[in-house]
Each structure stands twice: as C-alpha cells, then as structure tokens.
Amino acid sequence: MAIVLLQLLQTAGNLLLPTVNAAIIDDGIVAGDTPVILRLGSLMTGIAAVQAGAAIAAGYLGAVVAMKLGRQLRAELFGKIQSLSSQEVAAFGTQSLVTRATNDTQQIQAFAVLVFTMLVAAPVMGVGGVLLALHQDVVLSAVVIIIVPVLLLVMYLIVRRLVPLYREGQDLLDRTGAVLREQIIGASVIRAFVRQDHETRRFARTNASLTGNNLQSALVVAGMLPLIMIVVNLSSVAVVWFGGHRVHNGQMEIGALTAFVAYILQILLAIMMAMYVLMTAPRAAACAERIRAVLDAVPTVRDGADLRGGDVVFDGGSVSFRNVSFSYPGAEAPVLENITFTARPGTTTAIVGSTGSGKSTLLNLIPRFMDSTGGVITVGGRDIRAVTVDLLRRQMAVVPQRSHLFTGTVADNLRIAAPAATDAELWGALDIAQASDFVRRLPLGLQTAVGQGGTNLSGGQRQRLCIARALLRPASLYLFDDSFSALDYDTDARLRDALGAALDMAVVIVVAERIATVAGAGLILVLDDGRLVAQGTHLELLAASATYREIAESQLALEDTL
Asked: Which of 93, 253, 333, 381 is 20 to 30 A from 460 in CA distance terms?
C-alpha cells in the first residue's frame, strides 16, 4: 500500500508540473509579472522535490519487496524439492530444478521490481495526461486519440510474439545447463575417449539454439524502440504544427501549448513504461509456470498420521516386506514384484543379484525415498506409511550408493548425522569405519577441507567417511547400499568385523556385489529381474540356488585369475 501511495504521489507531481509551468509562462513571463514567476517557481520547486522524494522511496520499497519475494520463492522451491521423492526429482531433472530455483526466480524478481516501480504509475500517468491534455485544449487532443490506439496495437503485437519465444528460451536454458553439467561431471571420461570435439559440437548445437532464441527475442525488443520513436516524433511534430497554428490564431496560449507537449510526452512515456512491463511479463509468466509446476507437484511420499509410540517408530523390531512390488509410472514391467522377507535385529540381511535386478530400489523403499506400488512394509510391526517421514527416517542411518560429501571440513560432514557429536565420538566412528588412519594423515585432520562432492578424496575414502557418518547416528536400522565396493578385500573384511561388533543389536541390511562381503550374513536375499528367487544363508544358497551359486562361482573364478 505504501508503494502505491508513493507512486501516486510521484505521478501527481509529474502531472502537476506542466500545468504550473504553463501558468508561469502565461501569467508570469508573458504578462511580465515577476512575483507570480517567483511564487509559482517556488511551488514548482516544492512539487519537484516531493515528486523526487516519492520516486526514490517508492523505488527503494519496491526493490525491498521484490527481493523478499525472490527469497520466499527460493525458500518455497527448496522446501518443495526436499519433499519430492527421488523419482519425482528425476522427472523434473536436476538441472531444470536448479534453473527454476535460480534463473526463473530471478526473472520473476526483476519483473516484480518493474511492477512496483512502473505498473501503478504508468496507467495513472497515462489517464491523467489524457485528462489534463483535454483540459488544455480539446481540439488538439485529437492527436492523442490517434496515437494511443497505434501504440497499444504495437504493444499487443510485440507481447504476442515474445510469449512463445520466452517460454521456449527457458526450456533451451534448461537443456544447455544440463549438457554443460553433464560435460563438466564427465570431463575425465570425455578426455579418456578423446571425445572433446564431439562434445564441443554437441554443446555448440545446444548453445546455438539458445543463442538463436535469445537473438529473436532481442530483435523483437529492439524493434520496439524505433516504432515508438516514430510515433512519438510524428505526434510531437503534429502537436507543434497544429498547436502553433492555434496559438497564431489566438485559440490557444503559449503556456497551454507547452503544457500540452509535456502531457503528450508523459502519455507516451506512460505507454512506454507499460509496454516495458508487459514486454518482460511473458518471460516472467513462462518462469512462473515452471515454478508453479514444481510448487504444485504433489509428493507421492506423504506423512502418515499415526504418531503412536512418541519419538520411536521401532526399537528392536524387525523389518518385514509382505508381497511388496514397485513399478515406475508407464513402465511395461515392474522393477520389484512380490518381495517377501523379514530382517531381524542382531543379524545382517544381505541383498545380492545382477546389475539392474532391483537391489537399490528395494533398499530405497525402506526410508521411503520412493513408495512401493504394492504390498506392505512394516518396521516393528507398524506400516511405514502410517508414521511421518521424518520420524521414520530418524530411526535409521543410511549409506547411499553414491558416496556424497558436502563442501566443508571432514568434521562438518560427519556431524551432519550428529550435530552435537564430540571429536572423540567422531574418531570412534572413524575407527569403526577403518577411516581414522587416513584422516589422521590429512593435513588438518578433522578440519581438513572437503571439496564439493568429496572430489579431493578417493572413492574408498569417501565410502568410509559416509559409513562413519552413518555410525554416528544411534539408530535401530542401518542400510548400506553397495557401500563397500571401493574398498580392498582386507579393508572390507576389517570393516565388516568392526560393524558386526558395533551394530550387534540393530537391524542391518546390506546391498553388495561381492559374495565375500555377504557370506557371513544371517540372511541373504537373491534378486533376479526384480523377483526374490531365493533366501537363506551362504551355505544354504550354495546348495539350493543356482543363481547364487553362479554369482559365487564367477567371482571365485575371477579371484583365482587375480
């Protein structure tokens, strides 16, 4: 409201100045009345000062509100993205979500600044200018009646052309960012296969499309100014020509003609301001559509309402799958089908199978990174969908398949799981994860900086830090998704022994490729093409499962050759 009032005050000052100036000319200069000139000049100075102050205050408040709007949009987008499942994030695309939270929000923020500084002033100035121009001379106002529709038509044609161009441009920006992100992350692969020229051409094609789109929209915008200036100059010539004749014939005062010219310019300025706002509106509208698509997305993983048991979902209870299935929308075949097993406390349940058999998908269903499409998963006898997602996840610790570390120190990364953990507790977790030796060798130990994604550490070091991070959380369930693949056999064996002693009372579920990693598990699940084809101990499966035996024999044969 304050911004609107300030803009109205600013516009009122703009509209009054030509009238006061006309009075100075007609009643002061022409009449030779110096006191009138001084009095009206002082009034004009005061109006100009108030108008300038209102303009500065309105601009400042408008910028503050626009910045807060941008901050709120980014916060809401971040919160919504955090609530989406892995499947929904993949559907939008990581790069697209980044672009929507940054570039798209910035476009809306910039549009908001224009709205708060121009959108109220422009129509008031335009309408007020027309009324005051009519007040100065009704006959000469015919020029206004002619030029306003012409300018409105030009504005309509430009906006209609810009809308599809801006919408296409935001999609092309997504594609360009995705290609660039892919090439940066996969730079070593590109170099290894000497594909720099191919990737350069691929990026060039995408970049050329984006450049072509931006060029088209820029040309449309650039064409606006010459068209406006042609209309402005023609209208100014017409006003001076016809107004000069009316002054010569005594039908109009010189001051009135001066004021009329000023009001014509104000009307044109108001239309140009409105056109500038409406010219940027299509891009903001396209960005708003993309942001709204994210904000309106309904997460498939929703909180349950059953809060029985306080802050504990299960303590010492089993994890059970009963006829659990999972399918991606539109997929021809399910990823998992009719999975039934029970993982009990104090034992390790291992999941093995060929690549693409659904091992990681099965594990991701437990913390509800995705929801099963059939069957029931229970922890401690309670359906995991019956409790809130946060409450469920607080009871477990997860080591994901991709060992991701954040920018910060080693200690910062470990304390993600336990913010209040002491250095002694950090070293204890590192000892169990077989990571303390290499951390002590780092230049600053726990305070050594970790690059984005942990790129300054080896794959095995990242895995062990992620395992240590999970161990810092006191949990009833620990999930390890192929978390030992980058470790050598000796470190793997020592780590499994240490984990067995540290997690002897918890439910431990491990996804692994190596038979040596899972051989000591109390229960081994064998997946094949999304189906649970066998379950049992290592010796039982060697005797009864051809699939498991084939996996074991192939790995033993490989080890013999090594």
From this structure: 93
